[in-house]
Design a protein that fits this description.
Elements (H helix, E strand, L loop, with lengths): L17 H14 L12 H8 L3 H13 L3 E4 L3 E4 L5 E3 L6 H7 L4 E11 L3 H6 L8 E10 L2 E11 L17 H9 L3 E12 L2 H6 L7 E11 L4 E9 L4 E3 L9
Parallel strand pairs: 3-10
Antiparallel strand pairs: 1-2, 4-5, 5-6, 6-9, 7-8, 8-9
Helix pairs in contact: 1-3, 2-3
């Protein structure tokens, strides 16, 4: 094995589950170039010995990396390092930036436009505003490793968040982090609705793909820990380079 054994490591004192730590460790080895594209991984049995865990724990980590396209399995041959071409988006996760960092992708944003806008009754109602209340809109292209993934418009109340128009840092990074650091507002819950659509010419131009391409339209209402509406956002995805991932667990038996 060309990779030093000590690089396959987990922290027994960490609160993160072992399978999660193994997933992150293997992803870091791929990102650093220690594990190269096309290179075979040690077998599940060998990885279990290297990490000091069960094969089931290793398999859970590998299956997640396969789902995220960091690895590929060839039946009867082995598991190999690949280069992800698709970005996984997990509905229900609060921040695009945090999602991308969690799966080892580099998030960034490009500003399309920002400013006070006239909004539909649907948006005003979602933010618990009247039709006369000023609403700020931030439209950005969200990228993962410089690939356009989402075209997103976020709507916020200027009464609740004054001075948004002059905030230069809004174009980059996490909006939720900005709201917390600037206004001490923490997004604690979101409600998300998804539906299939086809991209318009303008949307496709921003996402660098073809008009009419299949996409997922996402509608998000975000709330503070006290239940106050923080943000209402609408986005469309680049279907060529993104996928939506759902995981459910039954709690009542």
């Amino acid at each position: 094995m060309s990779v030093p054994r000590e690089l396959f490591k987990v922290d027994r004192e960490s609160k993160l589950p072992l399978y999660d730590q193994i997933e992150r460790n293997l992803r870091e080895l791929i990102l650093s170039g220690t594990l190269k594209v096309g290179q075979p991984l040690p077998s599940e049995w060998d990885l279990a010995q290297l990490y000091g865990v069960s094969r089931l724990t290793v398999r859970k980590a590998l299956d997640e990396l396969v789902r995220q396209h960091w690895l590929s399995k060839r039946p009867g041959v082995g598991t190999f390092v690949t280069k992800p071409a698709v970005t996984s988006i997990a509905p229900g996760k609060l921040s695009f930036t945090e999602q991308m960092l969690a799966i080892g992708r580099r998030p960034s944003s490009q500003l399309v436009r920002k400013g006070v806008v006239s909004v539909s009754p649907e948006i005003s109602n979602a933010l618990l505003l009247t039709s006369q209340d000023p609403v700020f809109c931030l439209t950005r292209i969200r990228l993962a490793d410089d690939i356009p993934i989402l075209l997103e418009s976020a709507y916020l109340s200027l009464a609740r968040f004054p001075d948004l128009e002059s905030a230069e840092s809004l174009a980059e990074g996490s909006l939720y982090r900005f709201l917390f650091e600037t206004y001490n507002i923490n997004v604690a819950r979101i409600e998300q609705t998804l539906k299939p659509v086809q991209l318009t010419e303008e949307q496709a131009s921003h996402l660098q793909t073809e008009a009419g391409s299949p996409s997922i339209h996402s509608e998000i209402a975000a709330y503070s820990s006290s239940g106050v509406p923080v943000e209402y956002s609408l986005s469309v995805s680049n279907g060529e380079y993104s996928e939506f991932y759902f995981s459910f667990e039954r709690e009542d038996f």
